[in-house]
Design brief:
The protein is mainly alpha-helical and about 80 residues long. It contains three helices and two strands; from the N terminus they run αββαα.
Length: about 80
């Protein structure tokens, strides 16, 4: 598959790729300058908002289990061991 750069150095992304990657007008693309070939990915991938929400939850959860069961005790409890 080929594409031609415009005089403004813009490239038209072929329809089949736009559809497969669910690209829409206004999507910001990141270019990997270290790649030995042209590599562009959407700057905000689908589901990233969910990832940010999870990371926020995780950051707020650090240390909440202190003073409770050890890992070994938790594993025995989970396995139903006495």
């Amino acid at each position: 598959m080929q594409a031609v750069l415009t005089s403004e150095f813009l490239e038209i992304v072929p329809a089949s790729i736009r559809e497969r990657l669910k690209l829409k007008p206004g999507v910001v693309m990141d270019f990997d300058e270290r790649a030995p070939y042209l590599k562009a990915v959407p700057a905000q991938v689908a589901g990233e908002a969910g990832l940010e929400e999870f990371q926020s939850w995780l950051a707020g959860s650090i240390g909440i289990a202190r003073g409770k069961l050890t890992t070994d005790e938790r594993m025995r409890e989970t396995r139903g061991e006495d």
